């Protein structure tokens, strides 16, 4: 059987920002990300919770070097959203697992999560597509995570 994962890439120096208590309104969310884009910062992974009592939480990743620019941009929204809380988690690495075989191999995501759990590696953020799973983890766990994925999936 061929491995569902054929490639692993890593990206270092990644910060995770979580915005708590954003109105569950697409126009407000678009305004926030438009302002970040206009500030010249490229956002990578984005994850949103389901709406609850009219609010959502949104997490996204960016390069560490862009943190202060984004914080300056987000500060302008504090007046509009008085319950807005901004959580920052720096010193992370993004590990992306790619493979066309993921389309037809049920349980691939579950197995990668099991491997991380077996190696005591906490997941900060997950994003997926049909052929890609990306994990944001602590930079200190990078080598251990890459090793376990390469060994299990024979890459």
TrEMBL record:
GO terms for molecular function: aspartate kinase activity; ATP binding. Keywords: Amino-acid biosynthesis, ATP-binding, Kinase, Lysine biosynthesis, Nucleotide-binding, Transferase. GO terms for biological process: homoserine biosynthetic process; lysine biosynthetic process via diaminopimelate; threonine biosynthetic process. It catalyses: L-aspartate + ATP = 4-phospho-L-aspartate + ADP. One of its GO terms (cellular component) is cytosol. It holds the Pfam family ACT_9. The keyword Metal-binding does not apply. It is an enzyme of class 2 (transferase). Residues 17-89 form the ACT domain. Pathway: Amino-acid biosynthesis; L-methionine biosynthesis via de novo pathway; L-homoserine from L-aspartate: step 1/3; Amino-acid biosynthesis; L-threonine biosynthesis; L-threonine from L-aspartate: step 1/5. Its EC number is 2.7.2.4. Belongs to the aspartokinase family. This is aspartate kinase. It comes from Defluviitalea raffinosedens.
